[in-house]
Amino acid sequence: MSHHDTNPFADEEVNPFADPSVKKGSGGRGGGGISPLPPEPYESGATIDIPLDTHSTKDITAKEKKLKAKEAELKRREEELTRKEEAIKKAGIVIEVKNWPAFFPIIHNDIANEIPIHLQTTMYVAFATLIGLVICLLYNMVAVTTAWTKGYSPIIWLLAVIYTLTGIPGGFYLWYRPLYQAARTDSALRFGSFLLVYSVHIAFCVLAAIAPELVFRGGSMTGILAALSISPQDRALGIIYFVGSALFCCESLVSIWVIQQVFMYFRGSGKAAEMKREVARQTMMTAL
């Protein structure tokens, strides 16, 4: 009986790791002549050393220290600023932030939040008279400048500049700020000082609307008398002066309404008697 394979159609076993240069030998199943590749050595639990950049680690540590130092300094400054603000509040000092006009803040003015509701209308109208004074004086300077270009004396232009440069800051610091502080703190003395200085303001506006020669030299103020003297020589310039006179008349009328309202509140709320007591007390302390 001849020797033969049990299954002639079975596939041969192929070793994928065998060296292709070695030919298949005879005898045995799957080709005993095929030699597999030797396995790579592997040690269980072996560690792999990865080199670290020591310079980078030191830089990160130094940056962290700097950030912590800056954070501590900012915290210290914040605590110091908080202590100063608390000390200022305890001392009764009010920090005023410039907020008007919004496009270029030059003064502090917050009637809606700092003035009592019963005095807000008066304060708004008083602020309007301050703006009106600015408009009147600037218009007067423009009118007098026009007169100067038409051959009038340059002295009247110099006087108009003096009126403007002294009148605008004078109105703000001499009577508007005292009224603002008086309404905010309800101070009788400040109300009294406002009434006194505001009376001078009204007198100035009335005289400016008339512009007598004895007070305002040679057309340096756009009043009725100045307009009447200029109109026969130059009708256009006379009209300009009449407009300036009308502006000062409006300013005078509104200012009279403001001083009436403040005076009524000053008398009705008992501030007059309180001011007398404060003046007497201060006089006594000065004498002592």
Automatic annotation (TrEMBL):
InterPro entries: SCAMP. Signal peptide: none annotated. Its main location: membrane. GO terms for biological process: protein transport. The keyword Coiled coil applies. Keywords: Cell membrane, Coiled coil, Cytoplasmic vesicle, Membrane, Transmembrane, Transmembrane helix, Transport. It holds the Pfam family SCAMP. Residues 25-34 have a biased composition (Gly residues). Residues 1-50 are annotated as: Disordered. It is found in: Cell membrane; Cytoplasmic vesicle, Secretory vesicle membrane. GO terms for cellular component: plasma membrane; recycling endosome membrane; trans-Golgi network membrane; transport vesicle membrane. Probably involved in membrane trafficking. This is Secretory carrier-associated membrane protein.
